[in-house]
Write a structure and sequence with these properties.
This protein is an alpha/beta fold and 363 residues long. Helices cover 37% and strands 16% of the residues. It folds into two domains: 221 residues, Type I PLP-dependent aspartate aminotransferase-like (Major domain) (Aspartate Aminotransferase, domain 2), CATH 3.40.640; 121 residues, Aspartate Aminotransferase, domain 1. The site of ligand T4K has 24 residues, from α3 and α4.
Length: 363
């Protein structure tokens, strides 16, 4: 039986990639801001409806650089319910993460609990639009304004998501995307920082190129965060098929939701009123989540428990006062119940039927 993974990258026909490779071979510019890099930055700005965007080698280096770009220090408020890269980006900058519990509906930082975690050392908030579900951006901005804090969104899951004001990526001081192979839009590995002004974009561009401004001037201890021409070319090709891929995901999402509507003990996440990207399909299993997870695995279906364990349970975080279980009851409950089911545009109807049947049998 063919294994079914939590996701599978969308790949355009191989022959369509050849002309891009030929161009790279002709130009012999492989990286350092080549033609495809420039084209992809512009194409993504247009598609996502954002002013400026800097491509990166991956989302994690982009997160680390975003914090550097805004010179964030001290303490940063963040969510324990995310991929570990969110908090790791803080540690790599010598910043102390302060975990705040999540809202049971949005699954994102609970704005009602943020203020109590602010101390004189707090300089920023790093919320995550988990699964591409929008954070309460208005409330978060209000708190940030009141306390003079920066807001850096980890928008790794939020490619193309829109809220009532348009593109979700326009909120906060910076938003960071991931274009990893497992994401809705991928460049094999890749990422980006979305920023509102030319000056910040320039600083980010310097930081991702070792701090170089020109051949002889280095203005900061930058890193090598550049995206290569191969990745950028693949991104341009991917972008052509993005709408079709999103339509297929939407259809799969609707079938799952409909199938689980009346199944006792299995809950789907709230659909919300935003324009979604159907990046993930989490279900929440009231009892014996791990038994269902194992049953699916035995049947060749490799869902994932995104996000279990909580980041705050990993050894480098669990000693922090904010990591204490009593501080994070909602995140803990959700983390103990979640399974992300296979979700990708090439998931076939009979494969989805098999997944649904197994879950219904279990329930
Ligand atoms: N912030 C958030 C909120 C994130 O979720 C992430 C990454 C980041 C920041 C950091 O961004 P990046 O630095 O990664 O750009 C995966 C991904 O590696 C990671 O990108 C992602 N989040 C996280 C949620 O999931 P794993 O270890 O679970 O992935 P892996 O390799 O087990 O892949 C899952 C399944 O996907 C495999 O079982 C098979 C399938 N797959 C995977 C790959 C890599 C393929 O079919 N083809 C592939 O090439 O972390």
């Amino acid at each position: 039986m063919k294994p079914i993974y939590v996701t599978q990258p969308t790949l355009p026909p191989l022959e369509e990639f050849i002309p891009y490779l030929e161009k790279i071979w002709d130009n012999k510019i492989l990286t350092n801001g080549g033609t495809f890099h420039q084209q992809l930055e512009q194409a993504l700005c247009d598609y996502l409806g954002v002013k400026h965007l800097a491509l990166f080698t991956n989302g994690t280096i982009a997160l680390i650089t975003a914090l550097q770009a805004l010179r964030i220090t001290g303490e940063v408020i963040t969510t324990p319910y995310s991929f570990v890269a969110t908090a790791h980006s803080l540690l790599w900058n010598g910043i102390k993460p302060v975990f705040v519990d999540i809202d049971p509906v949005t699954l994102n930082l609970d704005p009602n609990k943020i203020e109590a975690a602010i101390t004189p050392q707090t300089t920023a908030i790093m919320p995550v639009h988990c699964y591409g579900y929008p954070c309460d951006v208005a409330r978060i901005q209000q708190i940030a304004d009141n306390y003079n804090l920066k807001v850096i969104y980890d928008a790794a899951h939020a490619f193309g998501v829109k809220d009532k004001n348009g593109g979700l990526l326009n909120h906060g001081d910076l938003s960071v995307l991931s274009f990893h192979a497992t994401k809705v839009f991928n460049t094999f590995e890749g990422g980006a920082i979305v920023c509102p002004d030319e000056k910040t974009k320039r600083r980010i561009d310097h930081l991702k190129n070792f701090g170089f401004v020109d051949e002889v001037t280095v203005v900061a201890a930058g890193i090598n965060g550049k995206m290569s021409e191969i990745n950028a070319a693949f991104g341009l090709l991917q972008l052509k098929g993005i709408e079709e891929a999103l339509e297929k995901r939407k259809f799969i999402d609707a079938r799952y939701r409909e199938s689980f509507e009346n199944v006792t003990g299995i809950h789907c996440a709230d659909t919300g009123s935003h324009v979604a990207n159907y990046a993930y399909f989490p279900i929440f299993v009231e009892r014996n989540r791990d038994a269902l997870y194992e049953k699916l695995k035995t049947n060749g279906i490799f869902g994932r428990r995104y996000f279990y364990p909580l980041i705050s349970d990993f050894p480098m975080y669990r000693g922090l006062p904010s990591a204490s279980p009593a501080n994070l009851p909602v995140a803990r409950k959700i983390s103990n119940e979640v399974i992300c089911l296979p979700m990708y545009s090439a998931l076939e109807e009979n494969e989805q039927n098999r997944i649904i049947k197994l879950i219904k049998e279990f329930a």
